[in-house]
Amino acid sequence: MDVNALIDHTLLRPDAAREEIERLCDEAVAHGFASVCVNTCWVPLCAERLAESPVAVCCVVGFPLGAMATEPKAAETAWAVAAGADEVDMVLNGGWLKSGMDDAVRADIAAVVDAANGRIVKVILETGLLTDEQIVQACELAVEAGAAFVKTSTGFGHGGATVHDVALMAKAVAGRAQVKASGGIHTAQEAESLVAAGASRLGTSSGVAIAEGRTVEGGY
């Protein structure tokens, strides 16, 4: 299994420095990762540095809470795409989901999909805050809104990817979208178990360690 090709090489710390982002890009090229995943302020730098490579530029939107209003979330997406983003990982509005505001959740995702103008959109559910029933409902709304992926977690404080959640999400989308596992993936064994459960993309800050067969503690 070529796990490297499934990895979104991630650096989302608020204090990440320019040299770290540049190193992230160079590591992604060296190891054949699918993308780098960064905050939107770094999209122009990554787009320039990766212009001659097959590595995609992925960014997060409405991150990490997802609780911003729809218009600014869509505006951040449009800005990122104009700046060179190939993929957008948006955070679902969990409060709206738990309130039964399905139309608002669907419209929120659809607005980002529209602003992404054909780019891949992944919807972060933050599964650690949801019941199984809410995870299934969120997956359905994401599919209805046109998202290409559903994603487990932000990796910022509410648990990470589990085999149970990935399998549940894969069953819920039933081939209509793909599943990205993210949060707490530190070893090749963990990565492979999540792929076996149904993930076709992996978000991790431990990509280099995974590629080199090492184990690291902590990180996204």
Automatic annotation (TrEMBL):
Catalytic activity reported: 2-deoxy-D-ribose 5-phosphate = D-glyceraldehyde 3-phosphate + acetaldehyde
Major location (coarse): cytoplasm
Molecular function via GO: deoxyribose-phosphate aldolase activity
Pathway: Carbohydrate degradation; 2-deoxy-D-ribose 1-phosphate degradation; D-glyceraldehyde 3-phosphate and acetaldehyde from 2-deoxy-alpha-D-ribose 1-phosphate: step 2/2
EC numbers: 4.1.2.4
Similarity remark: Belongs to the DeoC/FbaB aldolase family. DeoC type 1 subfamily.
Active site (catalytic residues): 89, 151, 180
UniProt cross-references to PANTHER family, sorted A to Z: DEOXYRIBOSE-PHOSPHATE ALDOLASE
Its biological purpose: Catalyzes a reversible aldol reaction between acetaldehyde and D-glyceraldehyde 3-phosphate to generate 2-deoxy-D-ribose 5-phosphate.
Record keywords: Cytoplasm, Lyase, Schiff base
SUPFAM superfamilies given in the database record: Aldolase (SSF51569)
Transmembrane segments: none
Cellular compartment(s): Cytoplasm
Stated name of the protein: Deoxyribose-phosphate aldolase
Highest taxon, organism lineage: Bacteria
Organism name: Kribbibacterium absianum
Pfam families in the cross-refs: DeoC
Top enzyme class: lyase
